[in-house]
Design goal:
By secondary structure, the protein is α/β, with parallel strands linked by helices. The protein folds into 3 domains: 233 residues, Aminohydrolase, N-terminal nucleophile (Ntn) domain (Glutamine Phosphoribosylpyrophosphate, subunit 1, domain 1, 4-Layer Sandwich), CATH 3.60.20.10; 176 residues, Rossmann fold; 145 residues, Rossmann fold (3-Layer(aba) Sandwich). 32% of the residues lie in helices and 23% in strands. Strands 3-2-4-1-10-9-11-14 form an 8-stranded antiparallel sheet, with helices on one face. It has a 6-stranded antiparallel sheet with strand order 5-6-7-8-12-13. A 5-stranded parallel sheet has the order 16-15-17-18-19, with helices on both faces. A hairpin with a 2-residue loop joins strand 5 and strand 6. Helix 2 crosses helix 3, helix 3 crosses helix 4 and helix 8 packs antiparallel against helix 15. The N and C termini lie close together (11 Å).
Amino acid sequence: MCGIAGCFSEKGCYEKLLRTLRRLEYRGYDSAGIALLRKNRPRGGYGFSVRKKRGYVSALDGTRLSGSTGIGHTRWATHGAPSDVNAHPHVAGKFALVHNGIVENYAALREELTAAGETFVSETDSEVIVRLVSRCYKGDFFAAVRDACARLEGSYAVAVLCTDFPGEIVCARKKSPLVAAAGKNALYVCSDVPALAGEAEFFCPAGDGEFIRIAGGKIFLCDGDGKEIERPFVRLAAQSALPEKGEGSFMEKEIAEIPQALADTLKSLRRTDFAPCARPLRGAKRLFAVACGTAYHAALALRDMVEEEVKIPVLCHTASEFRYRGPLIGEGDVLVAISQSGETADTLEAARGAKERGAYVVAVTNAAHSSLAALADFSLLLHAGPEIAVAATKSYVCQLLCAWYLAAQTLFFKQTRLPAWFGELDRLPEAARAALGCDVSALAEQFSGARGMYFLGRGQDVVTAMEGALKVKEIAYIFAEGYAAGELKHGTLALVEEGFPVAAACTVRALAPKTCNALAEVKARGGVTVLLSQYRDLAAAADVFVALPPLPEPLMPAVAVIPLQKFACDMCRRRGYDPDKPRNLAKSVTVE
């Protein structure tokens, strides 16, 4: 969600921070700020130059703060509304701080600090941390940050400056991502590896409970006692600039990239050595799958495929609930955790808990150096490329491909055979390209004023319906519900009235009569119906028919969702919104 950056550079520190924050914009945010240590003249000593504003990083343009050491932040509001005052960095005494995460005991700490004489100027939990650091300071910068963090409950990644220590940045991490990096004439800390592309050459992630210290022109990874941790830095893949979105939005661009992303992911999967997970998958009598949001729909697709092909149960949970249900998972079980960023807090905690109980953890992620990839016993990597828009599109389709490939490998390990559709995976990119040709602009125009929508499906199409509804809610801000078509008459049909739009996906021939019956019930009550299918003889069952490119039925969810993604994006545009930055949402949800 939030993004933090720190930089030490004798030249252009402010500009380097600004560029890094721009690369963090994809996470979603509502305000931005930068603080630099500056030399006080003629009095001597150091102070802070701070620039922070509600709105986008571009609000920081036109100002140049001088100094060689600085920290920056893009904030997604949790405690306190978006405002200039609540924006980071926060300053107290000799310290300036930026923070990602949530301090769960902030209210008690704030009350304690207020009683001790501290006066708060913001509504944030983050200001509690910087005032706590200031209170803990006895001349040792590192010790003050360490001692303050020891009192925090929740999650955090913090980067801190101190006026007594020019040229130094002290950072701490707990359940929130943080990496150190080195470039030509500059040292960095940052929330994300991709944000360092074009700036840094080498990077190293900090582990949970570890600290990063930049001092004397060097980077140190430390434990809680300040003892240096030896860990090699990894070369950062070359990328000179952020992806360009062209004339449209990033979301439109990323939908158009689905065919290539599928081809790249399939190529990578075929090079992947599955031998390390052969024994756990062969011995598993059931699988668990956890994820959030769009990734959860990919988990449901994994369930459908494994139960159909392998004939073992798959227990799907939203990651945020999995931890608190006392899940019956343990040794001999396999948990599949799906997260585009690999930093989704709830998914990470679910995976961590499963591993502590003895389960084997498989990660499906788009980020090779993410926290989830580091935690997992085995990782399946998407090769979707950078996804900047908050709403997931190409990453979802690649997650489906990874889920199905994993299902196929599980079948092979258990029965030494592959599914009948496995040899047809090469057709996916071309079928996706054909699906991009589905024209849904007239539908978007027709329904752009709707107050609500239903998306229906049966079998594997239920997942497509759920994902289509989520996209409409995320970016077009229209209430939408996706669910099994057979449930229509069990209450929800009451909302259908004249002109109410209902879209259904029908890609399984055997279930077509049932889905068409549901559409007939809608039409009988004046609703407007849309049917998406590769079976053209079903066209008469709906007011509008969207023809999908044909594939083996089990693979159809990868193409059926594409017109729905386009539909949601077009609806968003027609309603005057930005599809890349939906309100209240963030790309990488690093808090619970």
